[in-house]
Amino acid sequence: MKLILNILILCLSVCDCHAEDANTKGPSDAASTPKVVDFQFDRIWKPKAAMLQGVLLPKPSVDAITLKIAGDKYEVTITGEEQPDKGMFILDETVTPMRMAIKSVSGPNKGKIILAIYEIKGENAMRVCYDLSGNAFPTEFKASKSSEFYLVGYRRQKAEGPEKAASPWGASESQHVEVH
């Protein structure tokens, strides 16, 4: 509860910091760009493309990944793997690029802390760059060969019905973003 309250306070305190000057855009542009505070992470996300250490992942590998976010919780499943990676994350929207600290609590990354930066690319799209080593937050959206960075472009999936929109962990669970 304390974590959720802190995230809410953080979101409210920075809602205007990332909005662009209304005078530099026309009305249609301003309406089509979601504000950080309004962006909803919850639901199911699929990567559109991903790069790991400078190598684009093949389409079948990308298609096998599913990210579920509910509140501050996440679950990443990969088709063919026995155990999903589950954990929680905290967002920091006060810096540019915005940051995310991810802690895996079960699955292949159990006990790991993964640091990432993220960017909202539209109402149903976001880009995340993870440092899989957990050493530092990336400073740009690149995944060079000499790094342990994983860069992913996610698209939110359409809800298939009321039962699909519910949290995958029950009413008390929340949001996510993760790495594989």
Keywords for this entry:
37% strand; disordered C terminus; Lipocalin; 9 strands; CHP03067_Planctomycetes; eight-stranded antiparallel barrel; alpha+beta; signal
Structural class: alpha+beta
Helix fraction by DSSP (H/I, runs of at least 4): 10-25%
Q: Strand order within the widest sheet? A: 1-3-4-5-6-7-8-9
Identify low-pLDDT runs: 1-34, 162-180
The CATH topology is given as Lipocalin
Oligomerization state: single chain
Give the biggest beta sheet: 8 strands, antiparallel, barrel
Q: Assign an overall shape.
A: globular
Which CATH C-level class is it?
Answer: Mainly Beta
Distance between the termini: 28 Å
- What is the residue-averaged pLDDT? 76
How many domains? The number is 1
Looking at the overall shape, the CATH architecture is Beta Barrel
Give, in order, the helices and strands.
Answer: HHEEHEEEEEEEH
Helix count equals 4
